[in-house]
């Protein structure tokens, strides 16, 4: 598989184009600031009265309403929450799209599951950082970047690939490596990754480890250092040098114990569950469930958020992070 780096990307097809970034949250802030500092013509499309409006102005952006920005731009890059994109697109963007414009996303959810159906004559592209927004910005400021994906759903002008790759370069993604894929693949793998491994899987693993130690009588602070804080330090080794070098850096005791015990923790049943989770994503069951949850006003998500905030690991962790200056009050 070809991985694209800075040398393969340029800004030629973006020079005379205006990019309207819709949304100034996790990805919107990071991507718009990176693209602007890379020399691209970026404006913001935001809702008046929201917190983002003032924040974007303070960061030096030209800020317009979503409708104004959509009208002015050649490229409309939609970076608001997935569950509201369809509604905002239908009410505030669709009518301003012109032939030759590009509608761009950082996740394929709404295009792949057809909550958004763009008109003929409009390119449909994706530039998806494989990273939380904060790290998109931080790594860019450090002179590096995070990896990403680009996808071309519709190329009506013959320029869609160059536009998407140029944006990826502007965001800093080609510094770390960019892969071209499809909206379907990005959507399914991204949803799977965040549910089974990156967000869902990891928090459950940490929680189970923490609770096992606390229930056995060990101090919660010690359990936190062992099962949560040190996880980042171990993952950093894997991130930098792979499994083999991580095993090399930890003790032989850890290596032997880890290799002989890990399949008792993440079992064959866990892998079967992962396969079932992937199926629910592929056949649209997850998307339907999430749509119903949103229509009902997110009751289940809100109650899970409350319960998550009440976990002992959260209160102990917040206290420890504050004491050592990791988390500001
Ligand atoms: N979070 C991440 O790190 C990643 C996200 N993505 C994708 O990027 C996209 C954006 O996600 P993310 O950055 O998390 O989004 P956020 O939740 O951070 O988006 C917040 C922004 O959306 C605006 N917004 C919220 N509701 C509305 C509304 N009804 N009308 C207009 N504006 C609204 C907010 O404005 P206000 O301040 O006015 O409320 C704010 O500017 C999604 O497609 C997501 O899947 C992809 C990779 C990683
Ligand atoms: C892992 C979660 C993510 O997919 C991301 C940061 O890449 C998201 O949707 O936020
Ligand atoms: Mg992701
Ligand atoms: Mg995601």
UniProtKB/TrEMBL annotation:
Substrate binds at residue 251. Mg(2+) 2 binds at residues 190, 226, 230. Keywords: Amino-acid biosynthesis, Branched-chain amino acid biosynthesis, Magnesium, Metal-binding, NADP, Oxidoreductase. One of its GO terms (molecular function) is ketol-acid reductoisomerase activity. The active site is at 107. Pathway: Amino-acid biosynthesis; L-valine biosynthesis; L-valine from pyruvate: step 2/4; Amino-acid biosynthesis; L-isoleucine biosynthesis; L-isoleucine from 2-oxobutanoate: step 2/4. The keyword Magnesium applies. Binds 2 magnesium ions per subunit. It comes from the Archaea. GO terms for biological process: isoleucine biosynthetic process; L-valine biosynthetic process. HAMAP family: IlvC (MF_00435). Belongs to the ketol-acid reductoisomerase family. This is Ketol-acid reductoisomerase (NADP(+)).
């Amino acid at each position: 598989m070809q991985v694209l780096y800075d040398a393969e990307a340029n800004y030629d097809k973006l020079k005379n184009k205006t990019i309207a970034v819709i949304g100034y949250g996790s990805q919107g802030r990071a991507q718009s600031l990176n693209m602007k500092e890379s020399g691209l013509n970026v404006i913001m499309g935001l809702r008046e009265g929201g917190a983002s409006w003032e924040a974007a102005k303070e960061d030096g952006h030209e800020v317009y309403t979503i409708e104004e920005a959509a009208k002015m731009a050649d490229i409309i890059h939609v970076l608001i929450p997935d569950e509201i994109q369809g509604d905002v697109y239908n009410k505030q963007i669709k009518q301003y799209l012109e032939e030759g414009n590009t509608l761009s996303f950082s996740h394929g959810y709404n295009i792949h599951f057809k909550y958004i159906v763009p008109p003929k004559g409009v390119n449909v592209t994706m530039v998806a950082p494989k990273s939380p927004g904060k790290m998109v910005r931080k790594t860019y400021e450090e002179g590096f970047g995070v990896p990403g994906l680009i996808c071309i759903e519709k190329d009506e002008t013959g320029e869609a690939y160059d536009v998407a790759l140029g944006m990826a370069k502007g965001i800093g993604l080609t510094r770390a490596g960019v892969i071209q894929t499809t909206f379907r693949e990005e959507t399914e793998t991204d949803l799977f990754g965040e549910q089974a491994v990156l967000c869902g899987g990891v928090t459950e693993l940490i929680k189970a480890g923490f609770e096992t130690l606390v229930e056995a009588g060990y101090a919660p602070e010690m359990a936190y250092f062992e099962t949560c804080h040190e996880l980042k330090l171990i993952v950093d080794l894997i991130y930098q040098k792979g499994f083999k070098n991580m095993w090399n850096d930890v003790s032989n005791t850890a290596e032997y114990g880890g290799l002989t015990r890990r399949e008792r923790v993440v079992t064959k049943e866990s892998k079967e569950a992962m396969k079932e989770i992937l199926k629910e994503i592929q056949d649209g069951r997850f998307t339907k469930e999430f749509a119903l949850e949103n229509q009902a006003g997110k009751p289940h998500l809100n109650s899970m958020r409350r319960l998550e905030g009440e976990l002992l690991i959260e209160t102990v962790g917040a206290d420890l992070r504050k004491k050592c200056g990791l988390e500001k009050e």
